[in-house]
Amino acid sequence: MTKIKDNTTDQTLCPVARAETVVGDRWTVLVLRELFAGSYRFEEIQAQTGGTPQMITARLKKLEADGLVTRQVYNKRPLRHEYHLTEKGEAFFPVLMALR
After folding, report:
1. PANTHER family, from UniProt (predicted)?
2. Residue 49 contacts residue 30 (beta carbons within 8 Å)
3. The whole model's pTM is what?
4. 27-58 confidence digits (pLDDT tens)
5. Would residue 4 count as lying in a domain?
6. How many separate domains does the chain show?
């Protein structure tokens, strides 16, 4: 019987594995879809995805930490932000379209 090699280290270096850790869940893909469609404000993204505020906040923070999204203030009182795709984030568009 052939023993399966443990590729844990190789997977962390693999671009496909890294991409899966960034956008590997439904809510992240939906948030990206809305950003590609032109929804930049939190309330718009939440309304269009149907996610809870906590879930959308967590996904936006992760996308920002991964360098796919930037956050910009658009209103100081009350404090409100817009989210925009970075060049790296825009590079995911063909991948998202391929999943249609």
Report:
1. TRANSCRIPTIONAL REGULATOR, MARR FAMILY (PTHR33204), TRANSCRIPTIONAL REGULATORY PROTEIN (PTHR33204:SF18)
2. yes
3. 0.78
4. 999 999 999 999 999 999 999 999 999 999 99
5. no
6. 1
- Taking the mean position of all CA atoms in its chain, how far away is CA 86? 11
Residue 5 belongs to some domain of the structure: no
In 10 A of CB 51, how many CB atoms? 18
In this predicted structure, what is the pLDDT of residue 21?
72
Domain containing 88 equals 11-98
Give the Cα separation of 23 and 80 in Å (integer): 25
- pLDDT for position 92: 87
Identify the CATH number of the domain in which residue 42 sits.
1.10.10.10
- Could you tell me whether strands 69-76 and 79-85 are parallel, antiparallel, or unpaired per DSSP bridges? antiparallel
Spell out where the chain has E strands: 69-76, 79-85
Q: Which residues pair with 82 in a beta bridge?
A: 41, 72
The torsion angles phi and psi of 85, rounded to 5 degrees, stand at -70, 140
**Two tokens at 88?**
């790296």
